[in-house]
Sugar ABC transporter permease
Amino acid sequence: MSANPAKARNFHELSKGWNIIFNCIAGAFAFLCIFPFLFVVIISFTDEGALAREGYKLIPSKWSIGAYQYIFDSGDTLLRSYGVTIFVTVIGTIVSLLFIALYAYAISRKSFKYRNFFAFFAFFTMLFNGGLVPTYIVVTQFLGLKDSIWALILPLAVNAFYIMILRTFYSTSVPDAIIESGKIDGAGEFRVFLTLVLPLSLPGLATIALFSTLGYWNDWFNALLYIDNPDLVPLQSMLMRIETSMQFILQNSQNSSLSLEALRSMPQDTSRMAMVVLATGPIIFAYPFFQRYFIQGLTVGAVKE
């Protein structure tokens, strides 16, 4: 006797009870992920004296914006650093996407004669590199990028790991038939790439763009190596210099009355939290614009029906 098709169980659907349980688990996990940042925001708006007396609390007895005032008292220095970081992030992400997308597309095409050589050339750099000293010599003396905005952009423009990710995306998500149809219609390689491949590759490109954006936004090491001009210091490096200045005052507070006076008016712990908020806030607000394509890009190589 055959079962009623209308009453057949759908194994792809969860019961209402399991849906509630899994939603609660996902909600609890999401809360655990976002709670540390929310706690940092709360501490950054806590009065330094209340923090010293009561310790870290979810609801402080006294709120204050003294930490942000201390940071912004540097005048237009912080705003200029924000401008440098935004410029480097936007231009660097565009340049990085251009290089990586073209390189990955070339080595993903089976008709490209030297695809294996260039794929190995990129993969080799993931295993071995020249080291810090040769890199510094190339950037400063050979390329002449010392104290140049391009010293913050070009060293991070090409990432071999991102090339391999995007190559895999091209190979699995862009059918060869579409490329062949473009060539039959008389389109060249660049036209096929721009009009046919790129529209199908938005999830992969958005994933690489998000990774590149995070890399440029959080970069401070290149500024430490190549930038001496205060007008070209990015945000992360500027915040590190503020932190270093605070540590210098703390370590020498017993030797100078001026340092003691500055120490009394300086929000120590709350200013550190304020720096974290200033450094991570903009990138958090930018993430929702990438989220849709980022989730699709994470499924590269997944089994599809």
